[in-house]
Structure formats: structure tokens, C-alpha cells
Amino acid sequence: MTDSPQHPRPITLGGRFSVDEADLVRLRAQRSRLTVSTYLRSLALDAPDVQQPRLLVDPELVRQIIRVGVNLNQIARKLNAGHLVDGFGLRQCLVDTLVALDRVTERIAEEARQ
User: Fold this and answer.
1) Distance (Å, rounded) from C-alpha 35 to C-alpha 27?
2) pTM to 2 decimals?
3) 75 Cβ neighbours under 8 A, 6+ residues apart
4) Which of 54, 21, 27, 57 is nearest to 39 (CA)?
5) DSSP result, 19-88
6) What is the pLDDT of residue 49?
7) Does position 7 have pLDDT exceeding 70, yes or no?
8) Coil, strand or helix: which one is 5?
9) CB 100 within 8 A of CB 68
């Protein structure tokens, strides 16, 4: 491949994106600290300098959600089997679920703002 010194990349390639897709590409390029052009070229050419930004969620939050999910599953099994379930316990389990989900969504929102 022979590129001239004045125009090291003389060829322009295009693609069509929806508004949401274009916004996502721009955001990912920004997070990778690259121009959109460099970001897309790097992805297309499997260049090692582009890493997809990852949303990091605290593993403890994930464990909390799993525990709450297990509790909800146990309650659902009892209800489906025709057993009586403590209303207070059910209410507390639902509150715990909402609190844990709120923590995770807030953390994800924080990561997205950075």
C-alpha cells in the first residue's frame, strides 16, 4: 500500500447509522479517547489500540441481586405450590430487590457519565 505523505489516508469510506447508533459510536470513540474516524478504522482493521469501554459494576452489588433473586424464587415456588407466604417477608424481599437494582442502575449511570 502506498500512501502519499500529504494524504496518508486518501480514501474515504462511509456507512449509514441511525441517530442512536451514531450517538453510541461517538460516545465509544470519546471513551476510547479517539476520533470517530480512528475509532472506526481501528475496529474495522482489528487494531489492538481500541478497547471497548466496559461498565464496571461492583461484584458485591451483583451478589446482593443474586441473593435477592434466590429469595424471590423461593417465595415464588412456595406460592406456586399453594403454600402460604409471610406478607411481611414478601414485602421486605421486594424492597431489598428494588434497593439493590437502584444501586446497580445508579452505578451504571455514573459509569456512563464518565
Assistant:
1) 10
2) 0.39
3) 85, 89, 90, 93
4) 27
5) HHHHHHHHHHHHHTTS-HHHHHHHHHTT-TT---------HHHHHHHHHHHHHHHHHHHHHHTT----HH
6) 59
7) no
8) coil
9) yes
Bin 54: left if φ > 0, else alpha if -120 < ψ < 50, else beta: beta
Q: In Å, how far are 3, 42, 62, 87, 106 from 45, measured between CA atoms?
A: 17, 5, 35, 58, 35
> What contacts 93, CB < 8 A, 6 or more positions away?
68, 71, 72, 75
pLDDT at 34: 83
**The C-alpha cell of 108 is what?**
451504571
Cβ atoms of residues 3 and 10 within 8 Å: yes
Instruction: Write the CB contacts of 90 (distance below 8 Å, at least 6 apart in sequence).
Output: 75
